[in-house]
Design brief:
The chain is mainly alpha-helical. It has one domain. The longest helix is centred in the C-terminal third of the chain and has 25 residues. It is globular and about 50 Å long. It starts with a strand and ends in a 19-residue tail after the last helix.
């Protein structure tokens, strides 16, 4: 590991491990290129700053429901910038959630927020809503197919 990188050894739960792999799969498919946890952490930092009360409530419930500590050891080697971003997320969430959280908790919350966003996008796409939140029509006045 170089001077411009930082390593974390995290003992995570199986549910958190599954959350990491699912998030990376979705992010890779979204961007059409293989992604790393570092890429995902960096891409999520701006969005996590915008959490509102409802988001904070959901993230807190997520952390209660999904244990982060466990027997699966992962080694996360990320750039110093990514490490600073992860610590920034941890500090933001501690302040917003009014509780102390670990690096694993911060990673879990970050990935959960990403999955919720992806699921929301899929539901909206399935409903075929336009930008005005109105169902798309097939062009006929009454919406009935001929």
């Amino acid at each position: 590991m170089g001077a411009d990188s930082r390593g974390y050894t995290l003992d995570i739960s199986e549910p958190l491990f599954r959350l990491t792999t699912e998030s990376l799969r979705l992010h890779s498919n979204e961007t059409k290129r293989y992604q790393t946890l570092e890429d995902l952490v960096n891409s999520r930092v701006p969005g996590i700053e915008k959490i509102d009360d409802e988001d904070a409530k959901n993230l807190k419930q997520h952390l209660v429901t999904l244990p982060t500590d466990g027997a699966i050891r992962i080694h996360l080697s990320i750039t110093e910038t990514s490490a600073e971003n992860l610590e920034r997320i941890q500090q933001l969430l501690e302040k917003r959630l009014a509780t102390d959280i670990s690096v694993s908790d911060a990673l879990s919350a970050l990935l959960f927020d990403y999955l919720v966003e992806q699921k929301t996008a899929r539901v909206i796409a399935k409903l075929e809503l336009d930008e005005f939140d109105q169902p798309r029509t097939n062009g006929s006045a009454n919406g009935v197919h001929s």
